[in-house]
Amino acid sequence: AGTYNKVTIPAVFSGNSALSALLSPTDESGKPRQEMALEKFHEYLRSSKAYLNPSLTIGDVGDKIGVPVHQLSKAINLSLKKNFYQCVNELRIDEAKRMLKDERLSGASIISIGMDAGFNSKSTFNDVFKKIAGSTPSEYRQRDALPERQANNRQNHESG
User: Fold this and answer.
1) What is the SS3 assignment for 125?
2) How many Å apart are CA 6 and CA 104, to the nearest integer?
3) Could you tell me how far CA 143 lies from the centroid of its own chain?
4) What is the Cα–Cα distance from 138 to 27, expressed in whole angstroms?
5) Which residues are CB-contacts of 147 (< 8 A; sequence separation ≥ 6)?
6) Is residue 110 a contact partner of residue 138, using CB atoms and an 8 Å limit?
7) Cα–Cα dist 63/131, whole Å
């Protein structure tokens, strides 16, 4: 029993700073590791628009931001109550909505907009769009994007 007491858990880990860092809930700045991982995740996706890549994986993002996949996945799941692909698909749908509203892209096919937004199939794009936006992309383009165009046209006529 005397030998067991001498080798305590803190003593085993005290010399291993990498392992201590993994076990620590905060980083050097005192911010929770989970919060830091999410900040890096959001900042990277916003600045790089990596979500436009249809083959993007959580491993790709983890490598780019220097956060282990398990830690990033846990941070996303616990903090956002979503998984990685739900987060990425929401960004893709925001991009698709923006493109559907863009008058310069009014002649672009809906499937090309879906592909440009990071989806790799028409059915996935339509399913995810409907789930997140509450309508199909074509319904959105007709119903939600047109009022904005009409308002812009009114402003152009009033100011001109």
Assistant:
1) helix
2) 72
3) 26
4) 46
5) none
6) yes
7) 30
Per-residue confidence of the chain (160 residues) as pLDDT tens digits? Answer: 554 444 444 444 444 444 444 444 554 555 678 899 999 999 999 999 999 999 999 999 999 999 999 999 999 999 999 999 999 999 999 999 999 999 899 899 999 999 999 999 999 999 999 999 999 999 999 887 655 555 555 555 555 5
Q: Which residue has the tokens 């830091």?
A: 36
28, 3 in Cβ contact below 8 A? Answer: no
Q: Which residue type sits at 120?
A: N
Give me 12's structure tokens: 């085993």
CA distance 140 to 97: 8
37-60: string of b/e by CB count within 10 Å (b at 16+)? bbebbeebbeeeebbbeeebebee
The whole-model pTM stands at 0.72
- Length of the chain, please? 160
Assess contact for 113 and 100: CB atoms under 8 A.
yes
- Give the tokens for residue 116: 């440009």
